[in-house]
Amino acid sequence: MIMTTPTRCIDVLRLRFGAVVQENVSLAPYTSARIGGPADVFVTVASADELADAMEVIWDYGMPFYILGSGSNLLVSDKGVRGVVVLDRAKEVRFENSDPPTVWCEAGVVFSNLANRCASKGLSGLEWAATVPGTVGGAVYGNAGAFGGDISNNLIWVDVLTKNGREKLSVEQMEYGYRTSVLKRREIKAIVLSAMLRLKNSSKEEVSAKINEFSEHRKATQPPGASMGSMFKNPAGDHAGRLIEAAGLKGTRIGNAEISTRHGNFFLNHGDTKAEDVHALIQLAQKTVSEKFGVDLELEVELAGEW
Predict the structure, then answer these.
(1) 284: which residues sit within 8 A by CB, 6+ positions away?
(2) Which end of the chain, N or C, is less surrounded by CB atoms within 10 Å?
């Protein structure tokens, strides 16, 4: 038998990762909005080391790529994503009894699950994250936050991968702003592998009570159903949802996409919704709010794929 040298990126990925490398995979099931076309190549990784190995191949072949976590705060184009989509399922977590206590976690850890694990150990600091649907990697990348907390207040350092190898970035080096960072602004081109987060000693009862309070508030104010979370960033001194409601757009529908009647900053998928319909609602909201109030709404949701 004659062995041939792989000439395609997908062939090399299959040699390293086997059956988890697939072609033409619909991304809709992997997003919280349940919307989106196919990925040319789809790779699932189970550890930070596997993510680094996959990226080494992807970079070597100069392939376009997208790193996917839980798929929240994301709208994937109907045309899909060209190149390789890497689904990060790296979920190792290590608690350290230091002073203050800390937790090290891989980027694919679901943030809300981590917050509840902290609560079970009587560790506070991440109560705000119990209602955040994304992963640790996404939170570090975009400075996720809720209920007055955000990742910049917990992060000690983040382990990232660049084309030059791995390196640690301190919270100061991340240069966090409101829902942004050096990574999201593309000032540093790197991929989040893992993070070290600062916690506080507390009691299971106190932490759980705070989480329950936040969860009940979320249920009372945010709509259920498939959505991308908050569509727009809140403008300085105001709220995107209030502006969209004041513009008379709550309940506006294009196809099966609707601006929620409960909260104007949530756009819902009522089933088999096209990304282009959601995108049309985004443009309508931006245009109407700009014309009526002179405010330019900036997306919090990230657009992926061909538009």
Answers:
(1) 249, 252, 254
(2) N
- Total count of residues recorded for the chain: 307
Which domains are seen in the chain, by residue range? 9-88 (3.30.43.10), 93-220 (3.30.465.10), 225-304 (3.90.78.10)
Sequence-ordered alpha helix ranges (H) in the chain: 9-17, 48-60, 111-120, 136-142, 204-221, 240-246, 275-293
Q: Which of 212, 216, 176, 169 is nearest to 190 (CA)?
A: 169
- From the candidates 230, 245, 258, 260, which is the catalytic residue? 230
Question: From the candidates 106, 127, 258, 300, which is the catalytic residue?
Answer: 300
Does residue 2 register a pLDDT over 70?
A: no
Distance set, CA 174 to CA 31, 135, 180 (Å): 26, 17, 9
Contact by Cβ (8 Å): 226, 268: yes
Q: What is the distance between the alpha carbons of residues 230 and 300, in angstroms, rounded to a whole number?
A: 7
Compute the CA torsion angle 222, 228, 231, 237 (nearest 10 deg): 50
Catalytic residue among 179, 194, 258, 260: 179
> Among this protein's residues, is 291 annotated catalytic?
no
Average the pLDDT over each of 98-102, 183-187, 203-207, 215-219 and give the range with the smallest value. Answer: 215-219
Amino acid letter, 253: R
Task: Let me know if 258 is a catalytic residue.
Answer: no
The pLDDT tens digits for 256-304 are 999 999 999 999 999 989 999 999 999 999 999 999 999 999 999 999 9
Note if 245 is an active site residue: no
Reported as a single tens digit per residue, the pLDDT across 224-247 is: 888 888 999 999 999 999 999 999
